[in-house]
Amino acid sequence: QVQLVESGGGLVQAGGSLRLSCAASGSTFSINTIGWYRQAPGKQRELVAEISSGGDTNYGDSVKGRFTISTDNAKNTVYLQMNSLKPEDTAVYYCNGRREYDWYDYWGQGTQVTVSS
User: Fold this and answer.
1) H helices of the chain, where?
2) pLDDT at 24
3) How far apart (Å, rounded) are the C-alpha atoms in residues 54 and 48?
4) Residue 50 region, left (φ>0) first, then alpha (ψ -120 to 50), else beta?
5) 93 CB neighbour count, 10 Å cutoff
């Protein structure tokens, strides 16, 4: 089992920045890809950014150039640095860890990000 705990959400004005953190514990060796998804009210959950165990990154089109994903392997933590935030970035952000041998997804409880205009 893997546990994912997010932190760092909050309220920020448009143009501002936030950094989200996701601390992983348990059988973290089983995770091949870790990243962030978000879900706004009335919308489907969408990929924000993910990073593979090999360091390859993938970003959603709407955040490219503004958000950066990174990891601290010593702390088993993944970060999402969010710059130039827009009101449309408002959503609950979920940390995701994927086990590829059976495509099983672990999820955190989510953290709210609200961007005011």
Assistant:
1) none
2) 96
3) 18
4) beta
5) 23
Q: What does the pLDDT look like over 1-28, one tens digit per residue?
A: 999 999 999 999 999 999 999 999 998 8
Q: Give how far the C-alpha of residue 77 lies from the chain's centroid of Cα atoms, to the nearest Å.
A: 11
What CA–CA distance (Å, rounded) separates 52 from 59? 12
Measured in degrees and rounded to the nearest 5, phi and psi for residue 114 equal -125, 125
Q: Half-sphere exposure of 4 toward its Cβ, with a 13 Å CA cutoff?
A: 25
pLDDT in tens, 57-69: 999 999 999 999 9
pLDDT in tens, 33-85: 999 999 999 999 999 999 999 999 999 999 999 999 999 999 999 999 999 99
